Automatic annotation (TrEMBL):
Listed transmembrane segments: 6-29, 50-69, 89-112, 132-160
Protein name: Copper resistance protein D domain-containing protein
Keywords on record: Membrane, Transmembrane, Transmembrane helix
Keyword presence, Transmembrane: yes
Amino acid sequence: MMNSLLLWIHIVAGILWVGGLFFIIWGVYPATRVLPVLRQKQFLLQLMKWSHKGFSIAGITVIITGFLMGIGGTVNRWEMLFTTYYGKWWITSLVIGLCTLVWGTFIGYRAFIRMLTREIIWKMAEKGYPRLLYFSIVKVVFISSIEGLGFFILILLMVII
């Protein structure tokens, strides 16, 4: 019963974490493109500041519930981490999940906020010179894509196990 509840929380938190970020990337951001440049900046800055804590909590919840399901289930002894197939995949998933969360929380998010608060690139774009803004967005997308790669690997590991 407890493992079923942990699994349910794990899945819901995963949907909120991964799905929420993907919705912002593929749904909200493209919709903001119809706004004037400085409005885009203001909206995205507020959205990121508002949603960051929720995404971080969802990611932490995914990792904690995954950890608890592992130690409460198949990986119930230390040596099982390194001697069983499942233990090796479980520790790999834990490490990748932690790295993905840390990357998104401390590197991707901060890069996005830095880009959104660089006034000069937004003012230049507003005056008809968007090149520096586009370059900055591509740079942030590249940095943030590492978090997406972590999500992809985690989902792949779940399907393999």
